[in-house]
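We emphasize that the prediction below concerns an isolated chain of 269 residues; any contacts that depend on oligomerization or on bound cofactors are therefore not represented. The input was used exactly as deposited, without trimming of termini.
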Amino acid sequence: MRIFQNVKNWLIKHLPVEEDIALHENSSFHKWVGYPLLIIFIFAIFITFDLYQKGIYSLNKDLLITTETLSDFAKFYAFPITALTIPLTLGVMFNRFHSSKQKAKSNRLIEQNNLVNNYFSHFSNFNSYTDTLEVKYKSVGLKLSAQRLYRILFQNCNLLKFDATVQKDCIDIIIDSAFVELEKYRNHILINNHYTVEKEVIEGLELLWSTRKDSQIYEYLKELKLIIIDLLNFHGIINSKEIEKYFYTKYEKNMEKNFMTDNLSGDSC
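Result of the prediction step, given as a token string:
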């Protein structure tokens, strides 16, 4: 097995099948066929020289083509004639290898092209979807950056790998970002009577909101929840239902933890 592997490695290194160029321009193809032909030709020369030495063939004799001379020729040159099948077989094998490698490369290029097309088509649909959400939430001044949101939501999606799933750690980051704003509000409102929510609490999502009391920041977080749920309802997300349920459950737990809804009218937290 080791000898076979060494021979295989030598052939790959010194007589490679180059799929990028045409068969007739492939130098290895000429070697695969040419070297055996050269060896066979040398054998034929030795046999011919030996026949002349023995006087069977002579330059002084007339060249006659008869059944007897043909039979003698086939008998004397049986080995070189039989050996001619070797370069023929090697030529066919090389052609098959060359075609196979070309087809494999073509399939890879088609697959890569499909990945690129899927990526840009998916992003284009997401971009259009964010436009519709901006119209839907126009009353609260929603502005969405499709490119930045796409990068956040589809972390594993790129030109080389198309993955239309949203990961849970992405949702965790979004929720954490939303409730960090709540902490900022609480710290600020202790010494001020007015708080303006950060223009971009979540990267790629702008929502202007001013608040003076807990019930208003509560409404802000509720509105943010609805916007994110709509984002997760994008038809291009493979695990949309699963990730929406995960987001909703975790977001609501954070809301319950941070607010006592029965007392919001009294502005308590």
